[in-house]
Amino acid sequence: MSNISFPVIRGTQAGREYYVAMWKLRMMKQISIFDEQDLPPELRAQRTLNKARIPEIANYILDNPKDYVFSAITASIDSEVEFEPLSGQQTEGRLGTLTVPMDAKFIINDGQHRRAAILTAMDQKPELGSETIAVVFFLDIGLERSQQMFADLNRYAIRPSRSLGLLYDHRNDKAKLARLVIMKSDMFRDIVDMEKSSLALRSRKLFTLSAFYNACADLVQDVATGNLEQDAETARDFWETVARQFPSWTQVRDGKLAASEVREGYIHSHGIALQAIGKAGNALLKGNPGGWKSRLKPLGQIDWSRKNARLWEGRALIGGKVSKVTTNVVLTTNAIKKHLGVELDPEEQRVETAHGRKDK
């Protein structure tokens, strides 16, 4: 029986030996991964592979060949192995060679989508095969232990908030734009939460970075020049002009009014309104690039109260609660555009017509 051998570092967790290897990516093609796709959930050690995620992760590798990064893959080996320490070492026998039968089966406890994406990326760019990834191996775990490993590995793996992801994303040009606008704005620098994607009741902020990102992206859609500084200056000018229509925003910034009181009472201090204003602003920038500032003044004349169910129920509100679904964003945009005297585009008109029929 043929074997495969590779250098490892031996360690111990909970009284069990495990091994850490640095594998070339091409090794991912040479090992036999146990395929659980057709087994029922109670007999699997992993969730089912979501094939829709694979192209996205593979493109991440291909689009960022100089700075992509992956954490270690964790796998279990279902056969006997042999660890041979290096001779003459001063490391208590931690460094050595692990020998595994070629017919051994590997169960991936954490990283199945990374592995599948790596294989897909190598199909398009074979030279990736010489690069490396860390792999952590546990031995002869068995189904129950593998299932528990999956639960434990994911127990504390909390996905970062969308706002925090945008804050740290330096590849996304629209994220760069939103961050730059906030940093340059005396108003929004103090009322936008840069980390959270939902605001606590007692938060002193009015908006999240993720909401401001959506609004900025819609504002500059098809009008951005590609010059970050120039586009950020245009967006900052727009949003600060908008802010002047809402004195309560300034009061929140200055600590004279509780942010929670404004959010509880008014639609204009929610992400859906910010995004809808961005969409309406985009139409103004396209259709009236020299005179859009004066066109924004009617914003302050709208009755933004959440008690104004006649205007907002079915648009920004569903059953009295703010709704962020796409249709409601469009309907809120339509209400704002009508007040600003801006014509609806065909899709907005279609949604508006459908909304009118539903109300009858």
Please summarize what this structure is.
The protein is α/β, with parallel strands linked by helices and 360 residues long. It has 16 helices and 12 strands.
Topology:
Blueprint: E1 3-13, E2 16-24, H1 27-30, E3 32-33, H2 53-63, E4 73-77, E5 82-85, E6 95-101, E7 105-110, H3 112-124, E8 132-139, H4 143-155, H5 162-168, H6 173-184, H7 188-191, E9 192-193, E10 207-208, H8 209-219, H9 228-243, H10 247-253, H11 259-265, H12 271-287, H13 292-295, H14 309-312, E11 317-318, E12 321-322, H15 326-340, H16 346-359
Parallel strand pairs: 3-7, 4-8, 9-10
Antiparallel strand pairs: 1-2, 1-6, 2-8, 4-7, 5-6, 11-12
Write out key terms for the chains shown:
2 domains; single chain; 360 residues; eight-stranded mixed sheet; 16 helices; 44% helix; two-stranded parallel ribbon; 17% strand
What features would you describe in this structure?
- By secondary structure, the chain is of the alpha/beta class.
- The protein folds into two domains: 3-155, no CATH class; 162-359, no CATH class.
- The protein contains 16 helices and twelve strands.
- The protein has helices at residues 27-30, 53-63, 112-124, 143-155, 162-168, 173-184, 188-191, 209-219, 228-243, 247-253, 259-265, 271-287, 292-295, 309-312, 326-340, 346-359; strands at residues 3-13, 16-24, 32-33, 73-77, 82-85, 95-101, 105-110, 132-139, 192-193, 207-208, 317-318, 321-322.
- The strands form three sheets. Strands 3-7-4-8-2-1-6-5 form an eight-stranded mixed beta sheet. Strands 9-10 form a two-stranded parallel ribbon. Strands 11-12 form a two-stranded antiparallel sheet.
- A hairpin with a 2-residue loop joins β11 (317-318) and β12 (321-322).
- α8 (209-219) packs parallel to α12 (271-287) and α12 (271-287) crosses α15.
- It starts with a strand and ends with a helix.
- The model has no long low-confidence stretch (mean pLDDT 88).
